[in-house]
């Protein structure tokens, strides 16, 4: 009897089908809805579980809900590795504190309305303009109390900017990253005369990062009306914090933010050096041409003087004087 061979993917498929058929049972679970890499998850602050929903269904991000559904598994391939992880197939949900959720969504709408009227400061456009207008650009760095993330930012910046690092003057502001504390710091930074500001935060769970700032902080950014950029967490996941709604630019880590700023400073400064060098060469060439023209004019004048004026002077003064003196001598020798 011939042996029946299977591929690794066949084994994974059979295992997934077996788990899905045996590891399925109705469930009711409570937690907070978050959005992770475009997928809904339910979290209690310690762990999160994926939520499978119908396309027509939208879940309220940030709300505490009670979900009814079926617990199952999802199959995920990463390179050549297959991963099975639990997931909830959502049948229905209920917001536990509907009044609180309505208030939350109302404030989100208010902030979005305010942000529509706010000037957007693109990263490259803003810093390119500032570096052209000012010899030194003043940048504020906001970070948590006793946080050392600013050192990662500065190290990456100096490495990328090189000899042009002194084009940026940094001012550090230690702050609580709670909504009220951060809002007060943003107002302080805005009144310090900085031209732009970065909010820096190191790694942490999504739940911790989601608690950075809030509505009051966003309103403080809108009132300040200065370029505002953030680098929070050690993940490329977006929309972890409400602060990202107000930010003019997001970086995955403080190091990446510092590196990007350093690269920008180097590129702009090198281009300025090239332009200045071209201007100096052009000015030198212009001076050479001007000097050459002056010399040619002098030579032309001398030639004109020699051709036109010298014969006249010779005739009027030399020949005429010689003629008069000759006539005088002739008269003096006559008997």
From TrEMBL:
GO molecular function: exodeoxyribonuclease VII activity
Domain of life: Bacteria
Protein name, entry field: Exonuclease VII large subunit C-terminal domain-containing protein
Pfam families: Exonuc_VII_L
One GO term (biological process): DNA catabolic process
TM segment ranges: 288-307
Exonuclease VII large subunit C-terminal domain boundaries: 137-262
Signal peptide, first to last residue: none
InterPro entries: Exonuc_VII_L, Exonuc_VII_lsu_C
PANTHER family: EXODEOXYRIBONUCLEASE 7 LARGE SUBUNIT
GO cellular component: exodeoxyribonuclease VII complex
Key words of the record: Membrane, Transmembrane, Transmembrane helix
